[in-house]
């Protein structure tokens, strides 16, 4: 465990907790789970209305959102060229003059990671050389996960070998739909083993899970099987991250923490495009799980266009003028 | 703090809402508000003003006029003058005004929200997102009812001038709940806001002027208790609608007793919040936040008694404590707070005293580690655990952010604990088992039951209490009836109908043997019983000829009858169809013995045989009417704005006292008793005092018609003495009285103590043969209470 911790520190600057080693499969931990959708939605609806961050607080919070961002490109037409551009943006996500105006030029603000498909890892490694920005790869037959477990494990091994420091896996939705929790556990645990010392984020694809109760159960199974993060979506489902589904998942993280003492991270992905959305997620994390989950080792946004909106908001904070996207270097 | 520091601490920082518009409004009125009478700002004749203070800053916001008797009189006069044209304007015209008011409130919603937050101390989030949107919604919804009144309420008309007295906890929302339905149904109003929170009502007066509401339709008079008292006692006020404490509610009931003023009371509560072991506990915690830390717990329907199944109690308590640590208390205009200021120092003191008593009683008290702001009127969220039902904090309404928790072992015990209170305003039930939820909801004595949610409101749903939480509903179609009277009421007469009588021949028949003595007894618990006192009264016909004797009952006989009525549980549980079958059976058996009952009517009232036969036939027909209704008096599914099914279910009142009219001894008995039992009530009946034998003869019909024992109990004797005993009996839930003016007054006066539902005739006479006067939905409405059950759904 101590060895793990040391390596984690290389990967993620601010690690200060024990890595989740997982626990043996225990069906009793998921049997009693009941989630009431309407009540969850009511709570989620007031997350952003009960708290408000303004002015310098908002600027600081938005910079924090950037530091927790997995700047992502996951498209069929990804090439070396746009991956290089993405990495350059990850290193310098905010215009220097704006950072200076906010007194943050020396704060070392970068995104939390860069997230790409497996075959693009080498370009990212190249572009991020000399930085501490980890590369996250989506492996295991992303996004549908419709390949054999053997192939999934192989892909993980290849991604790790290629230089990924974080692996975002997708689960077999069929196992959730069929409530085959033990099989799901075994699959995720095998992936975790294949990841070795590299951190694993488990994508549940919540948009394809029919009930919140099943989302909660799948979250619990994923954590039992040793996930470092649980993540909502691939960004490719018709419904991706939402505040209600986030509530369901982070409450399970809290439950798992109380059971085991392990802190598991959370990553909402897909559909988070506005600075205001990002603030709501940060507020939710602070309210439900506390300050520790406002750091990149326990919280990430999976996003591609969010950064652009945050940049414009930051410029507005600095200048008092509403900004335009072309005023900020593109990724 | 620098951005770099904030980046480390990730604090929220201040987020003040601008109060610019509200300050402008106050300044425009030079921070001194006269009364709003007859569409004009009018100086109070007393010349006196009092301060309105912001409880979260202790800033003096404005001076507000104190209305005295003369001002109240002026306001009522203005409302009275405005009444006729307002009625004649018609439903559509009134709908246009209500619609305009709703629009105008929306257009100035932030100003209303900010002013309310400043004046009351409640968080701007709540006024902005809950109070004021509900206000606009209420006016929109009732604009619709104004439009539909002619078709949907055609048997009803306006009451007249309505006096309305509202509390300080939801100043603007309570104004809307009062004014919108009153105006929709064609009434005009004089409204008194609470002295702590007058300002939004005065802003509303501005809105009334802006939309050109006719002068006098809405009058706002500010002031203290004496102003309210003058309004309650004003002879030209036809109805009082009050929301506030149970104590004051009872005072109003007593003050208006016998005057014929209608009243609706929405009073206190100690509402149970029941958590079963299969509930989503994290959602339960947020439900508790909504239940008891909404509006600082100053909510009449606050879920203030937490009842948790033993198996999950400790787990839930731990989650609640964790959540309490993250609640934020502070200035009401800060957008990042959960709990604002307590309305006034006097209320803060009450809360502090009750919490201290709770501690002294040995209950476990827990408060979060953080401290409330020092200046301003604040109190932290508080949790008591291991509380016993006998504890003062488990019984008294605290009206603050204080939750008292206790555990239960079984479902039955949960229901018992939930109902172990004099109140009955609301309840919240948490379980993921729909069978359990729908089993428990009807068993809770409360006007609103929220399944897996709490403190959810909408204009389309009726809100109001059982027991000492008051009576009447606000919202929904059920709420409209508080602001109308049945058109048949104008047909009621001051004198009893005169029927032709013939004195029977005094010739004694010669018989070889004396006839067998028939001794009518009392009918209690399905058995004939002798009166406790062992006395009888003589029954004569209308010419004074002796007929028989009936038992002279006393309060002990009433007591026995009430106990028997409570013991009859089978009747209420029968289906509407099964009840109908019994009622038809009663009609059948009466029909077989029609001649005997007709002869008895002739004997007692000296009417002609054909007249008596007419009464018997009308009685049979009436029984048919209620047998027909027994499975057709449906509830509604309200179109509320949330994703849920809101069931408005008519439930039986419970054990009812029925005091029958003297006239029409059989038809009067049938017309009052049968609708009550058709709705599932058990009844204690005092039949016609002068002609009780139709009722005592009726035992045999009841015994042969499968009526469960205890469903109908009949107690003869001095009507008004027995009536008083029933009015004073706290285990009677409702009381109908068709007797004298004085008797009506006594019923209303003496029923105030337990706030039983009363329905009296103020000494007026109905024509029982006339179907619009003698039967119908009006009777069924008084035999039931509407419970709204909110059932959200979604997997």
Order of neighbouring strands in the sheet with most strands of chain B: 14-15-16-13-12-17-18-32-26-25
* Quaternary organization: heterodimer
CATH-assigned homologous superfamily of the largest domain in chain B: Aldehyde Dehydrogenase, Chain A, domain 1
**Percent of residues in β-strands of chain A:** 5-15%
The chain-level mean pLDDT of chain A equals 94
- Mean pLDDT metric of chain B: 97
Overall, the morphology of chain B is: globular
Order of strands in the sheet with the most strands of chain A?
7-6-5-4-3-2-1-8
Percentage of residues in strands of chain B = 15-25%
* Main pleated sheet of chain B: 10 strands, mixed
Largest sheet of chain A: 8 strands, parallel
CATH architecture of the largest domain in chain B: 3-Layer(aba) Sandwich
Structural class of chain B: alpha/beta
Portion of residues within helices of chain B: 40-55%
Radius of gyration of chain B: 29 Å
Low-confidence sequence ranges of chain A: 1-15
Order of helices and strands of chain A: HHHHEHHEHEHEHHEHEHEHEH
> In total, how many beta strands of chain B?
32
Task: Tell me what you see in this structure.
The complex is a heterodimer of chains A (331) and B (795). Chain A is α/β, with parallel strands linked by helices and 331 residues long. Chain A has one domain: TIM Barrel (Alpha-Beta Barrel), CATH 3.20.20. Chain A contains 14 helices and eight strands. Chain A has an eight-stranded parallel beta sheet. Chain B has 795 residues and is α/β, with parallel strands linked by helices. Chain B has three domains: 247 residues, Aldehyde Dehydrogenase, Chain A, domain 1 (3-Layer(aba) Sandwich), CATH 3.40.605; 208 residues, Aldehyde Dehydrogenase, Chain A, domain 2 (3-Layer(aba) Sandwich); 269 residues, Aldehyde Dehydrogenase, Chain A, domain 1. Helices cover 41% and strands 18% of the residues of chain B. Chain B has 28 helices and 32 strands. In chain B, strands 14-15-16-13-12-17-18-32-26-25 form a ten-stranded mixed beta sheet, with helices on both faces. A six-stranded mixed beta sheet of chain B has the order 9-8-7-10-11-19, sandwiched between helices. The mean pLDDT of chain B is 97. At the A-B interface, helix 3, helix 4, helix 12 and helix 13 of A face helix 1 and helix 10 of B.
């Amino acid at each position: 465990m101590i060895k793990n911790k040391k390596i984690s520190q290389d990967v993620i600057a601010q690690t200060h907790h024990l890595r989740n080693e997982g626990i043996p499969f225990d069906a009793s931990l998921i049997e009693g789970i009941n989630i009431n959708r309407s009540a969850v939605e009511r709570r989620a609806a007031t997350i952003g209305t009960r708290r408000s961050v303004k002015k310098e607080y908002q600027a600081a919070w938005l910079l924090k959102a950037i530091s927790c961002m997995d700047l992502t490109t996951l498209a069929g037409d990804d090439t070396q060229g746009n991956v290089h551009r993405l990495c350059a943006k990850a290193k310098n996500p905010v215009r220097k003059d704006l950072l200076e105006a906010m007194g943050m030029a020396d704060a070392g603000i970068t995104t939390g990671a860069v997230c790409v498909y497996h075959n693009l890892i080498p370009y990212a490694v190249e572009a991020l050389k000399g930085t501490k920005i980890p590369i996250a790869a989506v492996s295991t037959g992303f996004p549908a996960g419709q390949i054999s477990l053997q192939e999934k494990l192989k892909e993980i091994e290849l991604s790790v070998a290629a230089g990924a420091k974080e692996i975002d896996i997708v689960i077999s939705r069929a196992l959730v739909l069929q409530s085959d929790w033990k099989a799901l556990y075994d699959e995720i645990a095998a992936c975790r083993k294949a990841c070795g010392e590299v951190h694993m984020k488990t994508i549940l694809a919540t948009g394809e899970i029919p009930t919140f109760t099943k989302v909660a159960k799948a979250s619990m199974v994923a954590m039992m099987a040793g996930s470092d993060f649980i993540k909502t979506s691939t960004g490719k489902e018709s419904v991706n991250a939402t505040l209600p589904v986030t509530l369901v998942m982070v409450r399970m993280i809290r439950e798992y923490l109380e059971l085991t003492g392990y802190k598991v991270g959370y990553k909402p992905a897909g559909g988070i495009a506005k600075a205001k959305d990002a603030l709501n997620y940060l507020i939710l994390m602070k309210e439900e799980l506390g300050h520790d989950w406002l750091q990149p080792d326990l919280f990430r946004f999976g996003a591609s266009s969010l950064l652009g909106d945050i940049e414009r908001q930051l410029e507005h904070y600095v200048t008092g003028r509403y900004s335009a996207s072309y005023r900020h270097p593109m990724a | 703090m620098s951005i770099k520091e904030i980046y480390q601490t990730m604090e929220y920082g201040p987020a003040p809402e601008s109060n610019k518009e509200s300050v402008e409004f106050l300044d425009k009125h030079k921070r001194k508000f006269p009364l709003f009478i007859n569409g004009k700002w009018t100086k109070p004749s007393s010349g006196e003003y009092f301060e309105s203070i912001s409880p979260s800053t202790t800033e003096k916001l404005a001076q507000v006029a104190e209305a005295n008797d003369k001002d109240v009189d002026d306001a009522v006069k203005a409302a009275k003058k405005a009444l006729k044209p307002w009625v004649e304007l018609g439903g559509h015209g009134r709908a246009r005004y209500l619609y305009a008011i709703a629009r105008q409130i929306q257009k100035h919603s932030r100003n209303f929200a900010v002013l309310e937050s400043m004046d009351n101390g409640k968080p701007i989030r709540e006024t902005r997102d809950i109070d004021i949107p509900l206000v606009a919604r209420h006016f929109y919804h009732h604009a619709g009812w104004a439009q539909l009144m002619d078709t949907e309420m055609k048997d009803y008309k306006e009451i007249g001038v309505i006096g309305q007295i509202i509390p300080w906890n939801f100043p603007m929302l309570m104004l809307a709940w009062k004014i919108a339905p009153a105006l929709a149904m064609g009434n005009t109003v004089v409204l008194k806001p609470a002295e702590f929170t007058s300002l939004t009502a005065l802003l509303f007066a501005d809105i009334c002027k802006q939309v050109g509401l006719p002068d006098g339709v809405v009058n706002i008079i500010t002031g203290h208790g004496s102003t309210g008292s003058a309004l309650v006692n004003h002879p030209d006020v036809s109805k009082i609608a009050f929301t506030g404490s149970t104590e004051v509610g009872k005072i109003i009931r007593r003050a208006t007793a016998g005057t014929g003023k209608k009243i609706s009371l929405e009073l206190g509560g100690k509402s149970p919040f029941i958590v079963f072991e299969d509930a989503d506990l994290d959602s339960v915690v947020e439900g508790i936040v909504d239940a008891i830390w909404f509006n600082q717990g100053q909510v009449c329907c606050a879920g203030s008694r937490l009842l948790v199944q033993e198996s999950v109690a400790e787990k839930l308590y731990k989650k609640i404590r964790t959540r309490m640590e993250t609640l934020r208390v502070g200035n009401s205009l800060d957008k990042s707070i959960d709990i604002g200021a307590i309305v006034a120092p006097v209320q803060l003191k009450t809360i502090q005293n009750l919490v201290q008593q709770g501690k002294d009683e040995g209950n476990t008290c827990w408060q979060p580690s953080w401290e409330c702001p020092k200046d301003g009127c604040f109190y932290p969220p508080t949790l008591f655990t291991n509380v016993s039902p006998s504890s003062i904090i488990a019984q008294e309404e605290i009206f603050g952010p204080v939750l008292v928790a206790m555990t239960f072992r079984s479902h039955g015990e949960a229901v018992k604990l939930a109902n172990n209170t004099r109140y009955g305003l609301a309840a919240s039930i948490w379980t993921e088992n729909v069978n359990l939820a729908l089993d428990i909801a009807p068993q809770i004595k409360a006007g609103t039951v929220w399944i897996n949610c709490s403190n959810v409101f909408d204009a389309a749903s009726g809100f109001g209490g059982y027991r000492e939480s008051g009576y009447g509903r606000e919202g929904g179609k059920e709420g409209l009836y508080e602001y109308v009277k049945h058109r048949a009421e104008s047909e009621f007469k001051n004198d009893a109908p005169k029927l032709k009588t013939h004195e029977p021949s005094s010739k004694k028949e010669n018989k070889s043997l004396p006839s067998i003595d028939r001794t009518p007894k009392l009918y209690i618990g399905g058995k004939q019983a002798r009166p406790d006192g062992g006395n009888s009264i003589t029954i004569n016909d209308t010419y004074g000829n002796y007929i028989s004797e009936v038992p002279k009952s006393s309060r002990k006989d009433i007591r026995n009858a009430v106990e028997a009525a409570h013991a009859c549980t089978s009747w209420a549980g029968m289906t509407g169809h099964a009840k109908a079958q019994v009622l038809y059976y009663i009609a059948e058996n009466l029909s077989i013995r029609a001649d005997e009952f007709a002869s008895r009517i002739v004997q007692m009232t000296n009417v002609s045989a054909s007249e008596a036969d007419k009464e018997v036939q009308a009685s049979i027909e009436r029984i048919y009417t209620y047998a027909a209704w027994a499975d057709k008096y449906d509830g509604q599914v309200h179109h509320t704005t949330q994703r849920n099914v809101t069931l408005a279910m008519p439930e039986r009142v419970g054990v009812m006292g029925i005091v029958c009219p003297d006239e029409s001894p059989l038809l009067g008995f049938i017309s009052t008793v049968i609708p009550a039992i058709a709705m599932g009530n058990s009844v204690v009946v005092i039949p016609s005092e002068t002609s009780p034998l139709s009722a005592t003869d009726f035992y045999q019909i009841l015994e042969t018609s499968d009526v469960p024992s205890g469903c109908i109990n009949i107690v003869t004797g001095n009507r008004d003495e027995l009536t008083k005993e029933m009015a004073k009996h706290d285990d009677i839930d409702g009381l109908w009285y068709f007797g004298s003016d004085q008797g009506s007054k006594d019923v209303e006066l003496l029923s105030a103590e337990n706030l039983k539902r009363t329905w009296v005739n103020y000494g007026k006479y109905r024509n029982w043969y006339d179907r619009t006067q003698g039967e119908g939905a009006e009777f069924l409405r008084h035999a039931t209470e509407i419970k709204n059950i909110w059932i959200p759904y979604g997997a």
